[in-house]
Structures are given as C-alpha cells and as structure tokens.
Amino acid sequence: MKTGLLLITHGNLGREILDTVTAILGYCPLATETITVPNDCDPDTVLATATAVCNTLDQGSGVLVLTDLYGSTPSNIAGRLVNSCNASAVSGVNVPMLLRIMNYPDSQHDRLVEIAASGARNGVFITTQEQAS
Q: H/E/C letters for each residue in 6-22?
C-alpha cells in the first residue's frame, strides 16, 4: 500500500504546486488531495474536512501532510491531524519537495517523510554572478 498525500496550504498554493509537479511527471503516482485554507477560515471546520480527507486517503500506510508555512493555520491543522489520524506532517512544501516525493511513491511512510524534507533542502541552490557566467 502507498502512503496518501494531503497538501494543506494558504490559497491555491497546494493545488498549483501539485498541478506543476503532475505536469512535469505526466501523472500523479500517489493518491493526493489538496485543501485550501482561506485567511478568514474557521480552523475547526477545516480540520473536520481535513480529517475526513485524511481518513479517505489512508489505505493502511498513513498519510503525509504537506503544509506551506510552519506555525500558520494550515500547519496547525496538520499538527492536529498528526494527533488524530495516521499521519505525519512536513512544512515548507515546494516543487522540489513534491517532485522528490512523487519520484519515490512506493517508499514506506517514514522514508517518504525523510524524502520530503531532503527534497526541499536539496532543491535550494544559490547562484552567484561568477557561477552564472
């Protein structure tokens, strides 16, 4: 069984990142859903929705929840999911993180969490003027 994937982000960020990665790969290898968190949301209402989605995505291997900004409402909702569902959460979602996850869809849940974090860290490069020449 594969790990389910849930993106909980501000605005449409999660959907946009997922669409970008899916376009790059040509398909989405994991059962994936996104939840948009508006600025004026009721966190308990979003949590109820997220819990239902999380339970649907969990086919026995758990759910990896990705959020955009640690300490924000999406991240706090993800943290509450970790305590109530078979889930792990990683904040700082970006294209390299999601692309790396999608390249290892058959990985065990705990390994996929590490792949997510390393994909985000290793996907950041600094190019200076000397290097660009």
A: EEEEECCHHHHHHHHHH
CATH of the domain at 53: 3.40.50.510
SS3 39: coil
* Structural domains of the chain, count: 1
Tokens representing residue 86 in the block:
């078979």
* Distance set, CA 49 to CA 40, 45, 104, 116 (Å): 16, 6, 27, 24
For residue range 60-90, list pLDDT tens digits in order.
999 999 999 999 999 999 999 999 999 999 9
Domain that holds residue 89: 4-132
Q: How many alpha carbons fall within 13 Å on the CB side of residue 118?
A: 10
pTM assigned to the model: 0.93
Structure tokens at 26: 């040509």
Give the Cα separation of 6 and 29 in Å (integer). Answer: 13
- Distance CA(89)–CA(114), nearest Å, equals 11
Tokens representing residue 58 in the block = 């969990």
> H/E element holding 88?
strand 87-91
